[in-house]
Design a protein that fits this description.
alpha+beta, 4-stranded antiparallel sheet, 1 helix, globular, DUF2155, signal, DUF2155 domain-containing protein
Length: about 150
């Protein structure tokens, strides 16, 4: 039994091997295309002042925006050969008036759909804008170094 692949005739066993090899190469390309970034870029809206602030946060570090504490756990982008899809896993806590910390969001945020999983709070909104490799903000380890 023979199978035809683009005008090339191969024995069935050869065709199966070729398909397995192609599938392996495609899965390696898909894995290589996803980039793990150390910095997440967020925008936050203060509904009282109407001011939008953009801020960088290193993965696994926490930054306070108003009464919210934002902690990205992962931030992914794609390489330049693919359409950019920015997504990140984020935890957001609220500092209540009685100084307790309450988790108000845990989940994935998608930069191309900011309204899908943005944090909506009575006073503040926070959404993921981008992921990047570097920031003008010094990393947490070097913050105390001189």
């Amino acid at each position: 039994m023979k199978l035809s692949l683009r005008n090339t005739v191969l024995p069935a066993a050869g065709a199966v091997s070729l398909l397995a090899l192609s599938a392996g190469l495609l899965s390696n390309q898909a894995q290589a295309a996803r980039i793990d970034n150390p910095v997440a870029v967020f925008s936050g809206l203060d509904k009282i002042t109407g001011r939008i602030t953009t801020f960088d946060v290193y993965v696994n570090e926490t930054v306070q925006f108003g009464a919210l504490q934002v902690t990205p756990k992962a931030c992914y982008s794609r390489d330049q050969s693919e359409a950019q899809k920015i997504d990140g896993f984020v935890e957001v806590d609220e500092i209540t008036l009685d100084r307790k910390i309450r988790r108000i969001f845990t989940g994935w945020m998608f930069a191309d759909s900011p309204g899908l999983n943005a944090v909506e709070h009575p006073i503040y909104d926070v959404w993921l804008k981008d992921c990047k490799q570097n920031s003008d903000v010094p990393p947490p380890d070097s913050a105390g170094a001189k």
